[in-house]
From TrEMBL, chain A:
Alphabetical UniProt keywords: Amino-acid transport, Cell membrane, Membrane, Transmembrane, Transmembrane helix, Transport
Species the sequence originates in: Jiella sonneratiae
Listed name of the protein: Branched-chain amino acid ABC transporter permease
Bilayer disposition of the protein: Multi-pass membrane protein
PANTHER family given in the database record: ABC TRANSPORTER ATP-BINDING PROTEIN, BRANCHED-CHAIN AMINO ACID TRANSPORT SYSTEM PERMEASE PROTEIN LIVH
TM region positions: 12-35, 42-62, 68-88, 100-122, 149-168, 189-219, 231-259, 266-285
Transport keyword on record: yes
Family: Belongs to the binding-protein-dependent transport system permease family. LivHM subfamily.
Pfam families xrefs: BPD_transp_2
Keyword Membrane applies: yes
Subcellular location: Cell membrane
Superkingdom of this protein's organism: Bacteria
Entry-linked InterPro entries: ABC_transp_permease, BCAA_transport_permease
UniProtKB/TrEMBL annotation, chain B:
Keyword Methyltransferase among UniProt keywords: no
Source species of the chain: Jiella sonneratiae
PROSITE patterns: ABC_TRANSPORTER_1 (PS00211), ABC_TRANSPORTER_2 (PS50893)
Domain ABC transporter residue range list: 14-242
Protein family according to the UniProt entry: Belongs to the ABC transporter superfamily.
Molecular function terms from GO: ATP binding
Residue spans crossing the bilayer: none
Protein's name according to its UniProt entry: ABC transporter ATP-binding protein
Keyword entries, A-Z: Amino-acid transport, ATP-binding, Nucleotide-binding, Transport
Keyword Transport: yes
UniProt cross-references to Pfam families, sorted A to Z: ABC_tran
Length: 295, 242
């Protein structure tokens, strides 16, 4: 059997792939956080709860109305985006003129309330969510057996990340967004409705978290705390990539997922902390993050 | 026509009456009143901190707090939110130019939404500013100071506004560039554009301005037509100190 550094090749490639799948979720979530932070300057601590909401929306749609995975993939993120837009308009937007700490505290409190409510209602145990029929089974890649659904998640995440990147870097709406990130007052003076842009941006970021939640539902169980487990790592990813850098958030998400996977092969004991070790090193060498600009 | 008394000229396109403005506790504008008639160019002069930029910001509704009356084409602007102000046909070229670093020259140019018909086409703008055309795909802040100023003016010309507020367009620029910007403003004026200019450079301003307003400590001291500029020079030097 082929060995690399004393590790059987199939094991190595297998962990790489698992890392890539985890990285897909890191990328989707850190992308949403970066989009929100870039324009709103809010560190969205509710991001994990919004991810959980997406998964629960899919679960409830199926359990109560029989609406399956594919429609849920569209409906659930829209529901999360709509709820988040209302929260932004009625509450979060009142905090923009204050210290950024208030936005952080508000979203943190929001996350606790959302997660607490779901925990009270559904209990802490996870609810299973079946993967779509068409993606059941798997494909033998030669070195490993890849469940089709996981392959789908990787592809979907890449497509979604690329689309959001294109939206922000190449469209007129994206130009408004980038300009408003630099100088919101001037963009407003030009006649652009910046408050609406802020609401849409928050809804987009939260909707991305909801979408990641739906994608995660068949892999991880749907549970009230599924987001809080993941979000800590995602925050580390955003810090490493650089707050507010869209491309940086995406690339760092995948790279760290893969590095985490590799650590599982070479030194499994460190796999839970490798992301944080990297974060510490990056903060020492480049405090603004790998792709961030010094502010 | 420029020296005709206000009563004969009807309603000004931009009317500012007893406007007061504040930054927090700091009261920066005191009963500022001015009139800007269609096709006219007026210039605000005054020392740094006299309230010239604050006056422009008050008109654009960018001050944290303002009171008094501002009318554009007769419309009361008191309740109009910031992002609807431009839609009354007014464009702003800020002192710091406000070119966006994360946008290309083209994107900067296309950024301000059209607020009325009759703006310049992109082709016409690139004819007027050929160096912008050459550099349309560079990041906005890679341009020289003069090019950034031209871009800041150019992007407003696209939007179809009738009034342009220009805050020190010549500041920090080389004489040849100042000359070029002066030519552009004269062209704009000929085409019927209404301009409110903040400028320390009298020699530059007199080429385009019909009237001057002299400001000090947030007050308008007086206004006079350009023909009286030479006679007022001693007074200007005393107040402006240049």
């Amino acid at each position: 059997m082929t060995m690399i550094f004393g590790i059987p090749l199939p094991a190595l490639l297998g962990q790489l792939l698992i890392g890539f799948i985890n990285g897909s979720f890191y990328a989707l979530l850190s992308l949403g956080l970066a989009v929100i932070f870039g324009l709103l300057r809010v560190i969205n601590f509710a991001h994990g709860a919004q991810y959980m909401l997406g998964a629960f929306a899919a679960y409830l749609l199926l359990a109560h109305t029989g609406i399956g995975f594919w429609p849920a993939l569209v409906i659930a993120p829209l529901v999360v985006a709509a709820i988040s837009a209302v929260i932004e308009r009625t509450m979060l937007s009142r905090l923009y003129d204050l210290d950024h700490l208030y936005g952080l505290l508000f979203t943190f409190g929001l996350a606790l309330i959302l997660e607490g409510t779901f925990r009270w209602y559904f209990g802490a145990a996870g609810q299973p969510y079946a993967q779509p029929q068409i993606l059941s089974g798997g494909t033998n890649l030669g070195f490993m057996f890849l469940p089709n659904y996981r392959g789908f998640v990787v592809v979907a995440s890449i497509v979604i990340c690329l689309s959001v990147w294109l939206l922000i870097e190449k469209t007129r709406l994206g130009a408004y967004l980038r300009a408003a990130t630099e100088n919101p007052q001037l963009v407003q003076a030009f006649g652009v409705n910046v408050p609406l842009l802020l609401t849409l941006t928050y809804a987009l970021g939260a909707g991305l978290a909801g979408l990641a939640g739906v994608l995660a539902a068949p892999i991880y169980q749907v549970s009230p705390l599924m987001g809080s487990n993941l979000i800590i790592i995602v925050f580390a990813v955003v810090v490493i990539g650089g707050m507010g850098s869209i491309g940086g958030a995406i690339v760092t998400g995948y790279v760290l997922g893969i590095l985490e996977g590799l650590t599982k092969v070479f030194y499994p004991e460190a796999s839970n902390i490798v992301v944080f070790v990297i974060m510490a090193v990056v903060l020492m060498l480049r405090p603004a993050g790998l792709f961030g600009k010094e502010i | 026509m420029n020296s005709a008394p206000a009563a004969e000229r009807g309603e000004p396109l931009l009317k500012v009456r007893k406007v007061n403005g504040w930054y927090g506790e700091s009261h920066v504008l005191h009963d500022v009143s001015l009139d800007l008639y269609e096709g006219e160019t007026i210039t605000l002069v005054g020392r740094n901190g006299a309230g010239k930029t604050s006056t422009l910001r008050a008109i654009m509704n960018l001050l944290p707090r303002r009171s008094g009356e501002i009318r554009i084409a007769g419309r009361d602007m008191a309740k109009v939110p910031v992002h609807r102000t431009a839609h009354s046909g007014i464009g702003y070229v800020p002192e710091e130019r406000g070119i966006f670093a994360s946008l290309t020259v083209s994107e900067n140019l296309m950024l301000p939404p059209k607020v009325a018909e009759g703006g310049m086409s992109v082709e016409a703008i690139f004819d007027l500013f050929p160096n912008l055309a050459e550099r349309r795909n560079s990041p906005g802040t890679k341009l020289s100071g003069g090019e950034q100023q031209m871009l800041a003016i150019a992007r407003i010309l696209r939007t179809g506004v009738k009034i342009i507020l220009l805050d020190e367009p010549t500041e920090g620029l080389a004489p040849v560039i100042i000359q070029r910007i002066g030519d552009v403003l004269v062209e704009l004026k000929k085409s019927g554009m209404t301009l409110l200019l903040v400028e320390q450079n009298f020699r530059f301003a007199r080429k385009v301005a019909d009237r001057f307003y002299l400001m000090e400590d947030g007050h308008i001291l007086e206004s006079f037509p350009t023909a009286q500029l030479d006679a007022k020079m001693d007074r200007l030097h005393e107040v402006v100190g240049v």
